[in-house]
Amino acid sequence: MLGIINEHINFQVNTQAEGEASQNKLLLGSDDGKRSYTLFQGHTGPVYSATFCPFGEFLLSSSSDSTIKLWSTKLNSNLVCYKGHNYPIWDVQ
């Protein structure tokens, strides 16, 4: 899945099926080729969904590993991992 924060920054979420090889990561970067991409790693299963806060400072991602992760796009790191779900999480908003 591809998404756009604004006209300069986009993100890509891995949407491979569970049986397929998966990279379990999010990419954040620019379409114009002038900026490098930021790789967010931390989920142990395929990432199904991602969404940004209105100003683009934070990113939520959900995965087949039954977790939701809150990422800082300024620090390029995971801030919180929400655990305790019994099933894969297909969507975050």
Automatic annotation (TrEMBL):
Report the Gene3D superfamilies cross-referenced here: YVTN repeat-like/Quinoprotein amine dehydrogenase (2.130.10.10)
Cross-referenced InterPro entries: WD40/YVTN_repeat-like_dom_sf, WD40_repeat_dom_sf, WD40_rpt
Which superkingdom, per the lineage? Eukaryota
One Pfam family from the record: WD40
Q: Which GO terms describe its molecular function?
A: RNA polymerase II general transcription initiation factor activity
Q: Which UniProt keywords apply?
A: WD repeat
Looking up PROSITE patterns in the UniProt record yields: WD_REPEATS_2 (PS50082), WD_REPEATS_REGION (PS50294)
Q: Where are the WD repeats?
A: 40-72
- SUPFAM superfamilies linked: WD40 repeat-like
Q: Name one GO biological process term.
A: transcription initiation at RNA polymerase II promoter
Keyword rRNA-binding annotated: no
One GO cellular component, as annotated: transcription factor TFIID complex
Q: In its keyword annotation, does this UniProt entry include Ribosomal protein?
A: no
User: Which residue spans traverse the membrane?
Assistant: none
What the entry lists under PANTHER family is as follows:
CANNONBALL-RELATED (PTHR19879:SF1), TRANSCRIPTION INITIATION FACTOR TFIID (PTHR19879)
Q: What is this protein called?
A: Transcription initiation factor TFIID subunit 5-like isoform X1
Organism field: Dioscorea cayennensis subsp. rotundata
Q: Which gene encodes it?
A: LOC120257536
